[in-house]
Model the fold of this input.
Amino acid sequence: MYKHQHSTSSGSFSWVFQRITGLILVVMVISHYILMHYTPESGHTYDAVLARMQSNWYRVFDLTFVVLAMYHGLNGIWGIFRDYKLKQWQSVAIIGLLIIFGLAFTLWGIKTILDIPYVPTVSS
Amino acid sequence: MSEFKKFDQKNWVKTNLNYRKDSGSWAWILHRITGIALIGYLFLHIYSLSPLSQGRAAFDTFVAKYTTPFFMVLEWLLFAFVLFHSLNGIRVVLVDWADGARYHKVLYKYSVVIGTILFFAMGYIMFAHEINKFFAG
Done:
């Protein structure tokens, strides 16, 4: 007998959200390539990063990018595991590891972005 | 009454390799491989930019390592992965939300052509200096 699943537990939200974040990430990754390589602010020295990060737009962009990419990526990894028959302890272990590593690296990335100081005058 | 062949989880590699593959199957396989690689790269990217917190000297010596030709070629390959995952991701969304099941094979062909063009265009942009030097003699 087919067991009815409530829509909140069937994974349909993560399925929809995976597509939405994916579309946003396509736009963001194109912007990322242009901003990091083909604009006057481009450059990968410390001074170039410092000059760029005086603008909060860059900070907000990078923070959003790292959070969305991490969510989309780890949800995708979980999607791969979900294709296989897993015992419950295996599911719990995998989700636990993904959340712990995902949170740790997301927070590390956020810290790196926020650690960059604001300086009054930067030669551009 | 026909019975479904039970999926043999122990021999899944062999089972998958024996399966007849259309363009969609390859897209599915490559989407997974590029996806795993890209999330791996994101972890690496966060790690490799973390010296930003340690100031100018630490960051600039750290970044110098990544501007060698070897890493530039790797970055070019990374772009190929990003391209495939983006273009095929758009294809997946169209299949799911825009009746793309009717034209997914055409979409696959288009994305391969567009992807190949963009890949070589990026190669030219990245290595323009080296290429021009080569032809200047």
Q: What stands out?
A: Helices of chain A lie at 12-37, 46-52, 56-82, 88-115. The domain at 12-114 of chain A is CATH 1.20.1300.10 (3 helical TM bundles of succinate and fumarate reductases).
